[in-house]
Amino acid sequence: MSTDTLSHRHLFVPATDPGRPPLLLLHGTGGDESDLVPLGRAVAPGAALLSPRGAVLEQGRPRFFRRLAEGVFDEADVERRAHDLADFIDEAQARYGLAAPVALGFSNGANIAAALLWLRPEVLAGAVLLRPMVPLARPPSGRLEGRPVLILSGSADPIVPAENAARLAERLTEAGAALTHRTLPAGHGPTQRDLDLTTEWLAAH
Asked: Residue 164: its pLDDT value, please?
């Protein structure tokens, strides 16, 4: 495992199974570049792992973009940070010789991954979004051309309203994504069922 900066502080774990696509690991609020590495190893053994730290601090806690309140996003910052993250992915692909990664994001990380799908879809081969929300009120009209996306929502999630998750799924489908949306009997945190479904989905895609 190596630590480097490029335009984002990050961890990189080289592949031991070159047949697997790399994973882009995107942590939730208050996480860092090490948070989702165990999850990445569990759901995609042998895949290269690229795990950046969010560049925004909220009361000392890393995030990928600013918010104005719980569930209320600074959309100008969402767009700016999504483009910055896409540029980092380009840098990392050149540095490490990577194919386009599949994003695996949780909460705030899932939200920035959804923004990447709308704003810079060419940098991702697909995405697994754990407990995401709609990141932009008026998403761009870019086409995702069958890009595979898995959304895993929690029926008892106190942070993400069911309507919001459903709206995100609808908009990604309208943009052309090959979308699977599952709602699990869970809260906001990932469960073993999330890990099992993610592992199965990654193996199939």
From this structure: 96
The domain at 2-204 falls in which architecture? 3-Layer(aba) Sandwich (3.40)
Residue 180 structure tokens: 């699977």
Kindly report the pTM of this predicted structure.
0.95
Question: Alpha-carbon distance 173 to 18, whole Å?
Answer: 30
Catalytic residue among 157, 181, 196, 205: 157
Residue 191 near residue 163, CB atoms below 8 Å: no
Assign 137 a pLDDT band (cuts: 50, 70, 90).
Answer: confident
Active site includes 188? yes
To the query of whether residue 107 is one of the catalytic residues in this protein, the response is yes
The DSSP code for 55 is S
Per-residue pLDDT, 18: 86
Give the tens place of pLDDT for each residue, 159-193.
999 999 999 999 999 999 999 999 999 999 999 99
Of 74, 87, 181, 188, which one is the catalytic site residue? 188
The residue ranges of every structural domain in the chain are 2-204
